[in-house]
Q: What sequence folds into this?
């Protein structure tokens, strides 16, 4: 039985006082929501103060990126061990914004996934197609290629613990969601790829989220799809009430 997972990606938002205010508002709103895993991913600068607010709650801490090396001359980067040090459990990797603005490649993402597992962090790997890919009937092929390249350094045991977020790029921050049935088809395709490469056990356990303009108003239509095990939420995770509504729609 896969436990649904709702993760909030705060992106480059919230100074420390605002991040603390948001988490203080969220904690009581979801305090009785048992049966779903709840993750918040503040920017690096707010990880420590937000993490302090989470002790004794049912929310866990996630980060938005890491660097693959253990330590060394990598100015401006953050290692997996540094995140673990702050109480981080999950890390978003391969988000389309990093692929677009930082030029992250699938090879780099594969290295980051390996570094995350080595440090016992659980990655949320983001994959998804551009609008032109979908319009030209290439959406599944694009996502399949991303999976092949991103997962190439992992074992079946690791893939069992992975979360894969299917995020069509054209749906991120646009208010234009995928059709729930299309998202479910993609989730099934992702699970088939995992089954093919890592076996039926990994395919049964890997959790697949939908992401892209998820809101309190539409989350149920995604989370009620059989193969969709959660949501990766951007904009709506910055509003405690909206995020709490999304969490509640994941409870089965
Ligand atoms: P959005 O972002 O919910 O604002 O569309 C989702 C994401 O980028 O993870």
A:
């Amino acid at each position: 039985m896969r436990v649904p997972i709702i993760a909030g990606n705060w992106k480059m938002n919230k100074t420390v006082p605002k991040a603390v205010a948001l988490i203080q508002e969220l904690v009581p709103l979801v305090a009785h929501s048992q049966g779903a895993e709840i993750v918040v991913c503040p920017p690096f600068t707010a990880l420590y103060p937000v993490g302090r607010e989470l002790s004794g709650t049912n929310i866990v801490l996630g980060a938005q990126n890491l660097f693959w090396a253990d330590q060394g001359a990598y100015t401006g980067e953050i290692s997996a061990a540094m995140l673990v040090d702050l109480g981080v459990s999950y890390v978003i990797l391969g988000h389309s914004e990093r692929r677009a603005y930082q030029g992250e490649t699938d090879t780099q993402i594969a290295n980051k996934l390996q570094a995350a597992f080595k440090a016992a962090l659980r990655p949320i790997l983001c994959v998804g197609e551009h609008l032109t890919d979908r319009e030209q009937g290439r959406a599944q092929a694009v996502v399949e290629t991303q999976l092949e390249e991103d997962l190439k350094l992992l074992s079946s045991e690791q893939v069992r613990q992975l979360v894969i977020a299917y995020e069509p790029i054209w749906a991120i921050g646009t208010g234009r969601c995928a059709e729930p049935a299309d998202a479910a088809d993609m989730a099934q395709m992702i699970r088939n790829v995992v089954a093919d490469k890592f076996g039926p056990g990994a395919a049964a356990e890997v959790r697949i989220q939908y992401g892209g303009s998820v809101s309190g108003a539409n989350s149920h239509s995604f989370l009620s799809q059989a193969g969709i095990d959660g949501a990766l939420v951007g904009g709506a995770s910055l509003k405690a009430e909206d995020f709490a509504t999304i969490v509640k729609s994941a409870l089965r």
Summary: The longest helix spans residues 180-198. The longest strand covers residues 88-93. Residues 9, 167, 172-173, 211-214, 232-236 surround 2-phosphoglycolic acid (CB under 6 Å). The CA atoms of residues 57 and 238 lie 19 Å apart.
